[in-house]
Design goal:
- The protein is an alpha+beta fold.
- The chain has nine helices and four strands; from the N terminus they run H-H-E-H-H-E-H-H-H-E-H-E-H.
- The chain has a four-stranded antiparallel beta sheet.
- Helix 1 packs across helix 7 and helix 2 crosses helix 7.
- It is globular and about 50 Å long.
- The relative contact order is 0.22.
């Protein structure tokens, strides 16, 4: 059985897509980011909680502050990418549940009244949304460079608040010279899939 998605789209989103390490200086516009979000917002989350929050780092001053919290090897990438996004989980997502899950507005209090429960659910579901965000960046014809080599607590204090947990930083733009490392191996179907 073949996939329904056109092979060129399969290549764009998966087979040929890579984590970019260099970028051109072509800007990434707010309109492009809006189009990405308008596509990826339909990805699934439990109770439609949608806890992902995106902080766009555009100003040179904010960029300099962020670079200081990146691991040494990631600093040049973040310093030169046309756009950088901090992806975080909103641990107070439950406040939006009456709007986002209107057929069961009681879910806010029935399932998410305790902060530790919210934090676990927000992290898991925002990470799922972050994966969709990366695919959405690729669908826009851009390259993404997601990174977790950073001082998470420093990024939280510098850009977020106690109600948001940073998940990753994503550099976004058109790939530059020597943007790709060689493709690393992947596990085979038999190594991953078990039938019971």
């Amino acid at each position: 059985m073949s996939l329904v998605l056109d092979p060129a789209a399969q290549d764009l989103l998966f087979r040929e897509a890579r984590t970019a390490n260099t970028f051109t200086d072509e800007p990434v516009t707010d309109e492009q980011v809006q189009a990405i979000y308008d596509l990826v917002k339909y990805g699934p989350t439990a109770f439609n909680q949608s806890p992902l929050r995106i902080t766009l780092v555009r100003s040179p001053e904010a960029r300099d502050r962020l670079v200081q919290h990146m691991a040494e090897g990631n600093r040049p990438k973040t310093a030169t990418a046309p756009l950088v996004a901090i992806l975080s989980a909103d641990n107070e997502f439950h406040d939006e549940l009456p709007e986002l899950f209107p057929h069961f507005p009681q879910a806010k209090d029935a399932f998410f009244s305790e902060r530790p429960v919210r934090e676990g659910s927000a992290t898991l579901n925002a990470a799922l949304q972050a994966a969709y965000f990366i695919v959405g960046v690729r669908a826009a014809g851009l390259a993404a460079g997601p990174m977790t080599g950073l001082d998470f607590e420093g990024v939280r204090k510098e850009f977020l608040d106690d109600d948001h947990t940073p998940l990753m930083v994503v550099n976004i733009g058109r790939p530059g010279p020597d943007a790709w490392f060689p493709r690393s191996p992947r596990l085979s179907y038999e190594q991953v899939v078990t039938t019971v």
